[in-house]
Amino acid sequence: MNLLAKVFLLIAISLQLLMIQGCTTVPSGTSSSAAEVERLEKEIADLKRQIAILNRRLSETAPSTKVQRQPRMRPSVTFGGNPRLGNKKATVAIIEFSDYQCPFCRRFHSQTFDLIKQNYVDTGNLLYVYRDYFLPNHRQALMASVAANCAGEQGAYWAMQRTLYNPGARLEKDYYLEYASGLKLKRDKFERCLADKKQVDEVVRDTRYGSSLGIRGTPAFFIGRVEGEKIVDVSLVIGAQPYPVFARAIDQALQRAQ
């Protein structure tokens, strides 16, 4: 394994070991002691120093001709036709990728979502977009997403979402029908929607898109300036972080959007 490959591998391992705020695809049996983490961090730092030395040597021997820099590509994340909450003319939006079976996603929605809604969405400063990202080891998550989207077909997306994230919610078809009844949805229409393959395909597309953005765990949040059907100048928040983390990222995005 060459030097650069080893660096990237060690960094990836360290990030996985230190990620404790979200659901990931890393096997639950994976564990490591604090000493191992410290050893990895020291080895990464040493390898980075070696790379810096190699880069300096390469630059000393490289031709002196100037290379025209390419303009920096602005990261962007699209809405993808997904449910939106708040002012459609807001200059800043947050796009959440979550899994209904993920306990960290549930923690975010029980502890932090309402604060963001109250202080930013309800005031008209933030557009909130939800995109599905089901983890392969969460077998009920995909159909839970379908249930929320089918409720959305009858104008009750956010009400169903809240129900599915409530503590004690059951992610099973019988309960989806029960929740739909409680929301006064047309049962026949809702049940046909649950069986519609197009609904499953839409959730799968969301998840694949999230994977293309580098998401490997939930919840994941992209915050940026609205430009048409996407956000640009994006910042990323990973995991069920406390409210001040989101407030800081949103405030910074609002300042950039002025």
Structure description:
- The protein has helices at residues 3-18, 34-61, 103-111, 113-121, 141-152, 157-165, 173-182, 187-194, 197-212, 243-257; strands at residues 23-24, 76-78, 84-86, 92-98, 126-132, 217-218, 220-227, 230-238.
- β7 and β8 form a beta hairpin.
- The termini are far apart.
- It contains ten helices and eight strands.
- By secondary structure, it is α+β, with helices and mostly antiparallel strands.
- A six-stranded mixed sheet has the order 2-8-7-4-5-3. Strands 1-6 form a two-stranded antiparallel sheet.
- Helices cover 51% and strands 16% of the residues.
- It folds into two domains: 1-16 and 34-59; 76-257, Glutaredoxin.
In short:
The protein has 258 residues and is an alpha+beta fold. The chain has helices at residues 3-18, 34-61, 103-111, 113-121, 141-152, 157-165, 173-182, 187-194, 197-212, 243-257; strands at 23-24, 76-78, 84-86, 92-98, 126-132, 217-218, 220-227, 230-238. Mean pLDDT is 83; it is low at 3-19, 26-33 and 58-74.
